[in-house]
TrEMBL record:
Superkingdom: Bacteria
Protein name: ABC transporter
Record keyword Membrane present: yes
Keyword Nucleus: no
Record GO biological process: lipoprotein localization to outer membrane; protein localization to outer membrane
PROSITE patterns: ABC_TRANSPORTER_1, ABC_TRANSPORTER_2
Family designation: Belongs to the ABC transporter superfamily. Macrolide exporter (TC 3.A.1.122) family.
Single GO molecular function: ATP hydrolysis activity
PANTHER family reported for this sequence: IMPORT ATP-BINDING PROTEIN, LIPOPROTEIN-RELEASING SYSTEM ATP-BINDING PROTEIN LOLD
């Protein structure tokens, strides 16, 4: 099975008050095509920073990030934007839905940005939302949806463009335990049905165990050298 993601020697540090803080210290990590990997670690361990790096959301990192075989460091800003748009999907702890758009519009928008025609985009959005039990909530805005429903819309949005890799940062961290279990189960089911891979940051051991593999990040270092246990 090929690696959709391969990170080698990733480093990130910040300077505060004249003191250098090493957030990531030579991280090596691989995620295979179609694999769902839990990135487990306590708050402050560097999970979000690692996801930001892999998501090509900010610079300042040393090391190699290869997504679908493409080396991000060799791309200019337009190339990184194209790779992020075409290969990645994102789910955050807070849904970040557009408040003035209803559920289906929030899922249609990323497809339109990718030049998918409106009819195809709407059909895709309806299919995803329907599979998440939201077929009756398509015209509701985020303020009219429960927390669990909002996060389901965020999951559908992340998968709208059929990304090869979904990056999820504490995707159920803002939900109560029962709702978190339901949303995570639906997220994992849909990711597998879509054939995507996923890297899911969490501090919850119980949720991590539901995924294909667990890697542990502690003080900016993965427990194992390759990212494979």
């Amino acid at each position: 099975m090929n690696d959709i993601l391969k990170v080698s020697g990733l480093q990130r540090s910040f300077t505060q008050g004249g003191v250098t803080i090493e957030v990531l210290r030579g991280v090596d990590l691989s995620v295979r095509t179609g694999e769902i990997v839990a990135l487990l670690g306590p708050s402050g361990s560097g999970k979000s920073t690692l996801l930001q790096a892999v998501g090509l959301l900010e610079g300042g990192f040393d090391g190699s990030i290869r997504i679908g075989g493409e080396e991000a460091a060799q791309l200019d800003n337009d190339g990184r934007t194209r790779l992020r748009r075409d290969a990645l999907g994102f789910v955050y702890q807070f849904h970040h839905l557009l408040p003035d758009f209803n559920a289906i519009e929030n899922v249609v928008l990323p497809q339109v940005i990718r030049d998918v025609d409106m009819g195809t985009a709407r059909a895709r959005a309806e299919s995803l939302l329907g599979s998440l039990g939201l077929g009756h909530r398509l015209e509701h805005r985020p303020s009219q949806l429960s927390g669990g429903e909002q996060q389901r819309v965020a999951v559908a949005r992340a998968l709208a463009n059929r990304p090869a890799l979904v990056l999820a940062d504490e995707p159920t961290g803002n939900l109560d335990e029962r709702t978190a279990d339901i949303v995570l189960a639906e997220f994992l089911r849909l990711v597998r049905e879509e054939g995507s891979a996923a890297l899911v940051a969490t501090h919850n051991e119980r949720l991590a165990e539901k995924m294909d593999r667990v890697v542990r990040l502690h003080e900016g270092v993965l427990e194992d050298g390759s990212g494979h246990l």
